[in-house]
Design a protein that fits this description.
138 residues, mainly alpha, Multidrug-efflux Transporter Regulator, Chain: A, Domain 2, 2 domains, 58% helix, 3% strand
């Protein structure tokens, strides 16, 4: 049996986050000692590690909950896990494309002037002031 502090140390998940996962139903409410301290079993430790890894992969809590609900599922029901993984991969690809557009715009801004500022106008400050001069959406 593990205390909430031990669960936190073993998984790297902060104590308030563990409590939050309990309230969201991602982790079962643990047994309690006579002193009302939480006590988690090995299955809870494994589940918390699963949640942590899924969150590290960027999955929203709804998808984590959906994956947890598949525990013990077989056959076609497991197609949902594949759908979740593919959808997350697509979200990641969209995010990467957006970050690449942002990087290109910041490259353009960072090189907008030679840094001499002889005409008392800074092209970089001007570029940060408005979206109107941006080349693409970012």
């Amino acid at each position: 049996m593990y205390s909430i502090g031990e669960m936190s140390r073993r998984t790297g998940v902060k104590i308030p986050t563990i409590r939050f996962y309990e309230t969201r139903g991602l982790l079962a409410h643990p047994s309690r000692t006579a002193g009302n301290q939480r006590r988690y079993d090995r299955a809870a430790l494994h589940r918390l590690g699963f949640i942590r890894h899924a969150r590290d992969l960027g999955l929203p809590l709804e998808d984590v909950a959906a994956l947890i609900s598949l525990d013990g599922a077989t056959g076609a029901a497991l197609d949902r896990a594949h759908d979740i993984a593919r959808r997350q991969r697509e979200r990641l690809r969209e995010r990467i494309a957006s970050l690449q557009r942002l990087e290109a715009e910041l490259d353009r801004i960072a090189t907008a002037c030679d840094g001499r500022h002889e005409d008392h106008v800074c092209a970089v400050l001007h570029a940060f002031a408005s979206h109107e001069d941006c080349r693409d959406d970012h």
